[in-house]
């Protein structure tokens, strides 16, 4: 396995851009109110990657937070909003490249503001490069685009390179959580995380990956998958003490 140095990770050298990890960025045309929120509300919450990241990510939030977690591709935002409400002492960074999903999140935050959510509208790779080492308590990747055709598997977000980036960003003991209803992507993720020396799969029994995590609110996509007869899997990997410096 090729080991990426901090300089490689920060500069992006050695990270092959295999095409976008997501499909289209736009769906239905935004309503006037949604477009206004994108123009006026997003800048107030958006991270500016042109500026150096603070050594303590807690500085990104207006009130003190005990830890910072990241959700990559929050979709409709159900899980991110639920977690932010359930853990007001934690700061959350939500990444979403899809403009309609970001507009929905901004509408929800306009109706019920949460001070512990910051947003990034773009490719999560840029954010992972920007984050300081050991700055995150958790990373969630929930129902990512499965790219089901074999020739497109190289576009899946989980890869040796992105696993290395997440390992660098997570603090010792931090969790990477992954949910999917696509068996081939579950197996793919187990293989990629299993060969990184800085992660350990936490499962001890079948129910540990067959049943949702405690407090799981579910998502609309998950509900559709279950109706269609696809069983989701819920994987958790802990950032181990060894090789934390990567």
Automatic annotation (TrEMBL):
The gene is trmB_1. GO terms for molecular function: tRNA (guanine(46)-N7)-methyltransferase activity. InterPro entries: SAM-dependent_MTases_sf (IPR029063), tRNA_(Gua-N-7)_MeTrfase_Trmb (IPR003358), tRNA_methyltr_TrmB_bact (IPR055361). Keywords: Methyltransferase, S-adenosyl-L-methionine, Transferase, tRNA processing. PROSITE patterns: SAM_MT_TRMB (PS51625). This is tRNA (guanine-N(7)-)-methyltransferase. It catalyses: guanosine(46) in tRNA + S-adenosyl-L-methionine = N(7)-methylguanosine(46) in tRNA + S-adenosyl-L-homocysteine. It is an enzyme of class 2 (transferase).
């Amino acid at each position: 396995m090729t080991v990426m140095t901090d300089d490689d990770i920060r500069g992006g050298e050695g990270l092959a851009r295999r095409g976008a990890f997501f499909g289209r960025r736009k769906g239905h045309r935004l309503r006037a109110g949604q477009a206004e929120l994108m123009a006026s509300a997003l800048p107030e919450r958006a991270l500016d990657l042109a500026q150096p990241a603070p050594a303590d990510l807690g500085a990104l939030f207006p009130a003190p937070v005990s830890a910072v977690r990241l959700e990559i591709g929050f979709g409709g935002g159900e899980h991110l909003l639920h977690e932010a409400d359930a853990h007001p002492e934690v700061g959350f960074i939500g990444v979403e490249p899809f403009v309609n999903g970001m507009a929905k999140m901004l509408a929800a935050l306009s109706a019920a503001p949460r001070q512990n959510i910051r947003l990034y509208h773009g490719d999560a790779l840029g954010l992972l490069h920007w984050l300081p080492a050991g700055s995150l308590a958790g990373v969630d990747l929930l129902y990512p685009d499965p790219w089901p055709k074999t020739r497109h598997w190289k576009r899946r977000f989980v890869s040796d390179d992105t696993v290395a980036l997440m390992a660098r960003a997570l603090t010792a003991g931090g969790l990477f959580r992954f949910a999917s209803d696509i068996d081939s992507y579950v197996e793919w993720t187990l293989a990629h995380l299993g060969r990184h020396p800085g992660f350990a799969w936490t499962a001890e029994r079948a129910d540990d990956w067959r049943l949702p995590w405690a407090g799981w609110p579910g998502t609309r996509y998950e509900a559709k998958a279950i109706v269609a007869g696809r069983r989701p899997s819920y994987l958790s990997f802990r950032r181990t003490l060894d090789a934390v410096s990567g």
